[in-house]
Each structure stands twice: as structure tokens, then as C-alpha cells.
Amino acid sequence: MAEHSLQLRLSQKLSLAPQLQQAIRLLQLNRIELREYIQEVLDANPILERTDGEGEAEAGSEQPETESFEQQDWETESLGNEQWMESTPYDSFSGESQIADTSSDSLREHLLWQINLSHFSDEDTAIAEAIVYGLDEDGYLHDSIEDVRASLAPELLVEEDEILAVLHRIQRMEPVGVATRDAAECIRVQLASLPNDTPARDLALRISKDYLEQVARHDLDELRKRTGAKEEAVTAALDLIQSLEPRPGARYDNRRDEYLVPDVYVTRVNDEWRVTLNPENEPGLKLNRFYIDLLRKSGGKDAEYLKGRLQEARWLMSSLELRNQTLIKVSQSIVEFQQEFLEQGDLAMKPLVLKDVSEEIGVHESTVSRATTRKYMLTPRGLFELKYFFSSHVRTENGGAMSATAVKARLQLLLDREPPGHPLSDQDLSDLLRQAGIVVARRTVAKYRESLGIGSSSERRRLFRRTPAST
């Protein structure tokens, strides 16, 4: 009886694990990638089809009867929203809101953004930046620990174990496995970041450590002999390994131009800020009744094939629902934190880090990172990537904190009002900000000024001299 109970529990975990992986994957896709992924599934799965009329047969032809997702009863197979998120270390507007995105949010920029929002000390930040600048296009670190230490400023006397500690933190940032030294280490880091109860995880870790050569050859018999595991367990471990990304930086390469369409809308109704999803985020999928009826009547291999496709369809629908729920929760939390920005602009932006949102809605920081990357919010103040609302803090004289975005806005005002022909130096700007109660070092002012696309005081002075006087 005990063995029977254990087998039932194992079977349930195996049925949920693929959906967990799919839900995580869908969350990090942007709208275009999500649309392409759904189309691939529709092309391969006859049981799944759209409710919006796309791809349907010509008018007048016979249509198979279908049933929508909401009509299905599958409580025993669906995965609760809180369960998957907590277990993962992870029309007020007029006109079309589409903007051509020609920017390249590179892997380096994405990692530096996360480092900026993490609770690193100044010394650890310097180490982290040195590691990030040493990555290649695939996200691998080819520099040795000694090379990283040599690249730091002379006054930073750090030990090898300090660099390794920072390296391990970066390797668990998004994308997980970045800054590893080779594909084997990358796979091990990704496996180690999965929940401990992930099916086949322990065996996959063992295989990735000692038998990757056999994995490359897909030598199932040799793996069974060396590990002593059954064929079913080895197959599950191989499937888990092959679902991972051995080149964590690959998806940041050669980004194409995109037309940005909001994922969420923010409107103000009766002094209340409301967040709604773009209806296009819900593709309108349904199950084909014809094939479901055929499944009931079929047997053998046909039944097994249709049963597998039915399970895939249900997982996809449930994962899409979880994606939308997470996106709306994260967006609502951001709006509540940044309500003053929506009302007053950049000067009122509050300091906000991933941890603030993750703690409020009860998910892991990596889940918030996935939900905010390449997702866009349309507000009365414009279209913003969700990442825009996160900002590190700058200390104020009274012991408080101000967001870096608000400091940049103040800096822009000072630069706009500087005397013609007598541009303010970075130290002058630092002193003026300090007079306003904002403690910003000259180096930080220079960094913010450069991010605003404004040249140094000497460059601005030369530009003023070359500009003809107005008549």
C-alpha cells in the first residue's frame, strides 16, 4: 500500500513538471515571441484551435464542434498560480500605441540592470561589473578569477572567494546559468536552481556532472549501465537536461526591430488607477470537440497520441492563464508603488527594486524579472517598459531615499537652466543637488549625465561657441 501511494505521488509530480517549465517559459516571452510560439503549437496540435476565427475553414464548410477552455473540468491536472510561482526561484487612449523599437537590450545591459537593483555593496558591485564586462555573446565567462581580480581598480584588494561569491550570485540571475565557464557548468547551475522536488533533477545533476559525453551521443544504454537507473528515469533526466538553455546569452543576440504594443493599460477612473490587460494577450484558444469525441472512441496508439495532445493543450491554456495573472499582479503592484509618478512625472518616481514587488505579491524575484522584461505598459504619460519603473535609490540629507530616475529628472532641469556659455561641471551639479538635500557623488552625476545623452561641460562649452548667436 505504501508503494502504491508513493507511485501515485510520483505520477502527479511528473504530470505537473512540464507545465511548470512551460509556464516559466511563457512568462519570459514578449508578445511577438508568444504569438509565434502559440502558432507553432496550433500547427502541431489538432486538438487545439482558435476561437477568434483565424485559420478556420471557408464559410459554408462543415466545422467540427469545439469546446472552450472554461467548459473543461480538470482541477486534478491544473497547477495553482501561487504553487508554481512560489516554487520557482525565479478605452481612454486614442490611436494606435505602437512604437518602433530599434534598441538592443543586450545581455550586458540586462545584467547591469539587475545588479543595479540588487543589494550589492560597492565592492561587490565593482566585482559584478567586471564579471559582466568579461562575458562573451553566449553569456560565458572565459576570464579566470585571477583575470577578474586584475581588472579591478588597484585599491580594491579582494580575495578569490569574494569574487567567487559574487560570481555565484550572477550565475543565478536572469538568464540563469550566465557567467558560467562552459556548457556543463551552465547546465548544472540551471538544474541546481530548479525546485528540489523537480522530477528527475537529482539524476540529471549526476548525469550532467559525469556523463555529458553520453548525453551528447544520446547513448541511453550506456547511461543506464553507468547510473544504474531504469530506462524511464534516464529518459526523464535527459528530457530535463535537453529542455535547458546551454547558451544563456543566445536570445539577446541580433534582436530585430519590433513594433511595441502595450501588454497592459493603465487608466484613471474616479481617482483610482486601474490596470487591464491588452485583449490580444488572450489568444482565445479552445479544444476541438471532434477530436475529443474521437479520443473517447479510439484505442491503442491513436488514443495515446490524442491523449498526449489533449494534455499539451490543457497545459498551454492553463499556463497562458497563469502568465496573464502574474502580469496583471506585477503591473498592479508597480502602479500602486509608482502612483505619484503617474500623477506628477519623473520627479516623483520612487525607489523600487524587484524584491519590493516580489514580497508584496508573494512570488520570487526572478518571477518579477521575467514578467517585466520586454513587457510594456501604456499610461497617460506614455508607453514604458515595465523595467522602467524600477530604480535604485540615492540617499538624501535627511536620511531618506530618492529614486535614480527622479535624480536624473532634477539633473536634467539643472542642465536645462545652466547659464549659456558657462556650463556647469559635474562637481557643480553635485554641489547643487546636495544643496537640495540629495547626496550624489561627482562620478554618479557623470554617469547620470551620460545616460541622458548630454556631453561634459567642456563639450557643451565648445558646442555653444560653434553655435551662431541668434539675431
Mean pLDDT: 77
Radius of gyration: 26 Å
Which secondary-structure class do the elements indicate?
A: alpha+beta
First-to-last CA distance: 96 Å
In total, how many beta strands? 11
Number of H- or I-type helical stretches: 21
Strand content: 5-15%
- What is the overall silhouette? globular
Summarize the biggest pleated sheet: 4 strands, mixed
Widest beta sheet: strand line-up:
6-5-8-9
- Stretches with pLDDT under 50, minimum 5 residues: 6-16, 54-104
The portion of residues assigned to helices is 40-55%
Descriptive key words:
9% strand, alpha+beta, 471 residues, globular, three-stranded antiparallel sheet, Arc Repressor Mutant, subunit A, 21 helices, single chain
Blueprint of the fold:
Elements: H1 2-28, H2 31-44, E1 48-50, E2 66-68, H3 81-86, E3 99-101, H4 107-117, H5 122-132, H6 145-151, H7 160-171, H8 183-193, H9 201-210, H10 212-217, H11 220-227, H12 231-242, E4 258-260, E5 264-269, E6 272-277, E7 285-288, H13 289-297, H14 300-337, H15 339-344, H16 354-361, H17 365-372, E8 376-379, E9 382-385, E10 393-395, E11 401-403, H18 404-416, H19 426-435, H20 442-451, H21 457-466
Parallel strand pairs: 5-8
Antiparallel strand pairs: 1-7, 2-7, 3-4, 5-6, 8-9, 10-11
Helix pairs in contact: 1-14, 4-5, 5-7, 8-9, 9-12, 13-14, 14-16, 14-17, 16-17, 19-20
